[in-house]
Amino acid sequence: MKIKSPLVIFWFRRDLRLIDNAGLWAALSGEFNVFPVFIFDTCILNKLDKKTDTRISFIIEALHRLNDDLKERGSSLLVLHGKPLDIFSDLTKKYNVKGVYTNEDYEPYGLARDKEVSEMLSEKGITLFSFKDHVIFSKNSLLSGAGKPYGVFTPYSKKWKETLGVNDLKAYQSETIKDKWVVHNGGVVPRAEKLGFKTFRNIYKVPVLDHSLIVNYQLNRDFPAIDGTTLIGPHLRFGTISIRTCVRFACDTNQVWLNQLIWRDFFIQILWHFPRVVNTSYREKFDRIEWLNNEEDFERWKNGKTGVPIVDAGMRQLNQTGYMHNRVRMIVASFLSKHLLIDWRWGEAYFASKLLDYELASNNGNWQWAAGSGVDASPWFRIFNPVLQSLKFDPSGAYVRQWVPEFGTPRYTSLMINLDLGRKRCLEVFKRAVQE
Question: Range of 395's domain?
Fold first, then answer.
């Protein structure tokens, strides 16, 4: 593919759409035509389970849809596979690149990768331009009166809502500029098998903001047997829908759902300010906890064989679909970290390997919340009783029966732990650690 004219590259990442894309709008508004590129980063892919990871199938379907949109504009998506540093080094040799545009990444790996790519490009006289697109407020946008990052959600949320203005939600009209693309037809989206992964069918569902569902969100969101959640998580993760679109919709319909979107911003800014939370407890004294980390218990938890029906239902739903209801996520996380005394990092890593909507900041933040070690966490002495949770939020047992059909028969596994004894043991161990 020979393209001699000067151009800029737009590096698609977690923003797989033409509509309302901040970085793409900036690229298309410039002097040069835009060459669209997506990279399957081997530094990320090599850490994934080739047999069970459904995210690759989701991304590939999103890329097909993106490529179809680009073809309507006479262009196509160049999909590459390798280490971004090496790929951009090669691209700058092949093409007359005047700049690289992308949207910001806030995770430790992404920050290090972008720094490395930016430095290499700079040596060639090329600038990497990054834009805020994944969140409403990022980095140091919202600080306390003392100039510190917020560590408690309520004041952060208050400041978030007070600061929110019309311009923060204004949609970028990136999809309307149709004559600034590099014209070529060489882009081909690979099959998952080409990358060494298994193809999963029907993983990608077109994102829909259901008005009636969101209006009634707070009434139904805690009941896993009811279709009461938006399932928009994977689309926010991979940017097939704009966060601004979601927030505008939430502002007009339901403040409870808006708060869920603010939690997402909150956890992302915590990760940016405190990248150590990836491997250590936000509240550092919790790293003194003497975890049991029984591997057999962990396997039973992973496989939904604990003898606690709602825990088993949640884990089986996760293993089979890549999704778990949010209320059930809290229950299974509390059970693992408190009743079984298994390090929250084990559970966080397992969720990271299975969740289609996995986002490091939210997954880490929610696991630390459940374990009591995180920012604005549930008190360490609060231990969910999974039986009471099931009676309250799955009173008919419909959710349990859907995922644990053998429940109530002799085939169902026996309870792996006495819940009262597990609770008492947890209180003793946590108290010893946090009150030293």
Answer: 277-434
Residues in CB range of 80: below 8 A, 6 or more apart: 37, 38, 39, 40, 87
Give the predicted TM-score (pTM) of the model.
0.95
Give the pLDDT confidence of 117-166 residue by residue, as tens digits: 999 999 999 999 999 999 999 999 999 999 999 999 999 999 999 999 99
Where would I find the beta strands (DSSP E) of 195-234?
A: none
CB under 8 A, 24+ apart: contacts of 89-96: 89/120, 91/9, 91/37, 92/121, 92/124, 92/126, 95/3, 95/7, 95/9, 95/35, 96/4, 96/5, 96/6, 96/7
In angstroms, the CA 32 to CA 77 distance is: 17
Query: Which two tokens mark 42?
Result: 């081997």
DSSP 8-state symbol, 335: I
Does a structural domain hold residue 204? no
Task: For residues 5 and 114, state if they share a domain.
Answer: yes
Q: Are residues 142 and 71 in the same domain?
A: no
284 and 313 fall within a common domain: yes
Task: Look at residue 202 and tell me if it is in a domain.
Answer: no
Distance of CA 283 to the CA centre of its chain: 22
Q: Residues 391, 379: contact at Cβ < 8 Å? A: no
Residue 358 lies in a domain: yes
Q: Count of CB atoms within 10 A of residue 211's CB? A: 12
Q: Whole-angstrom Cα distance, residue 317 to residue 351? A: 12
Tell me how far apart the alpha carbons of residues 404 and 412 are, in angstroms, rounded to a whole number.
Answer: 8
